Amino acid sequence: MQRRPHGVLAILAAALTFVLAACGGAPQSGGGGDTGPITIGAWIPLTGAQAASGVPQMEGAKAYFSWLNDNGGINGRPVNWVVKDNAYDPQQTVQAARALIGQDKVVAIVNANGVAPSEAAFPFVLQQSQVPIVDHYGGIAAWYNPPRPLLFGTQTLYEDQAAAMAQWAVQSGARKLVVVHDDPKAFADIAAQIGPAAKRADGSTTTTAVPVKLGTTDFAPAVSQVKALAGDAVLLIVPAPEAAAYLKAARLQGVALPTYGYSPTASSTTTTLAGDAAEGFHAVSLVRAPSDQSPEMQRFREIMAKYAPGQPADFSTLLGYANAAVFAEVAKTIKGPVTSESIAQAYRSASNVVTGVAPPMSFSADRHVGTRDVQRVTVKGGTWLPEAGFVSAPDRG
């Protein structure tokens, strides 16, 4: 008679474990004990308007993980990186998150893409499932201030990029800045950082905004406004195709002002679409210029040629590659089982994570963005070339 309660308790415990796992509440493990594959996942736009950057981002990370697995993996364990298409859509991102966690049993979301889409999945992933999201492509200050326990970023925040652009323009002699930005709030908030940063660099600087509609293809009216404002530098907070359209329209109207862009414009898309009009265009990049001749960048080009031969070794592939490399370097520090909890702890303790293709990354319990550095790059002879090394974005006050 004494055995019956124990049997009931065992059944109840098993049922509770099943419910927790189904809800994502149980700690995720890497699968295969301490020797099998480490399963991680991501949602990336592989279809739709954002696929132009999403697909190469995926290919860069896939190439790195393929090379990593052929060279011993992470402490002898291969990486199984599962990617779901989110089409840059919030609802599809939530569905992808549920599939990655519920079906694929990933221990972390690594190198995902999409600010608004990812935010839609945060409650399920970070809070309900307790699965970390690391090395996200894109991010805003509100994500990390205050830091969320399971969210870690490798990208200098857009707000810091804007401040870095302003500092660069002022250091180059500009005092009357004209900021051309898309009109949605996300773009306007980034653009709003330029004026204060420029003032801190030189108190005599003035800044005027020229908002345009998201998706604009005809920049002739905006260029006419820029011309009338008689500024001495233009700063663009627009996607790469729109930056190219602006540069072409500026050339047609004879507006030859120094022009700067934030990281989304540091892209082969800009140079391809703008052609000769891109010559002299400046941008801040999150990674080294793909043309950089360092040994690490040479290895990047060799890995892309071997594992993704049809994909150019450009900024978009390098971003995916760099984020994958950061994850690998952090995960290698884990002693014992690779779980959602141990990955988060490894990031909280990670310091001076060096990949050679991105700035060194350092995290802590109260600092969940690994860097505030950018690489200044300029189009010369149709190629993005670096201006010295990484520089830190100025404080935003």
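the 2nd protein, sequnce then structure:
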Amino acid sequence: MNDTIINKVAESGIITIDLAAFYPEAETAVFDIKDYLFKGLILKEKEFREALKHTDWQQYNGKYIALNNTADAIIPMWAYMLVVSYLQPGAKDIVFGSEKDLLQTLMLDNISSINEDDYANKRIVIKGCGDVVLPEAAYTAITKKLRPVVKSLMYGEPCSTVPVYKAAFVKAQ
């Protein structure tokens, strides 16, 4: 009797992708226009412009910025544009929305940079659980990116997967 343990998962050629690897580790900050409103409700142009001139913009240098307005106030579009004009020279990028929106956008950018040809005709498992809660949009994006080129796409762990897609035939490389 042979007592050798064979790791069938390792021999299967399945590639596991952990989407947590695409989660941004960049430093982020939130710029909330609410903090620049008169009584937290009204944007007065002259005061708004003056307050922006006296803002320490250095604190946003090298960071990814979520630009939003958490006040229940109507903000003219030019106000967002004005804030971006101050942020842009030093910020790495600016996304309108919450910090959660910002992180999702950065993650989707990271996924879009994948070279899908590296996964052509391969069996892929998208890791199903981990320490980081990932947005549903990440699973949507990776599926859209890889489905056209992979042999099969699965969700879960290599030892217990949920089939998502299986090519009818293997594409020539």
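The mean pLDDT is 90. The longest strand covers residues 160-166.
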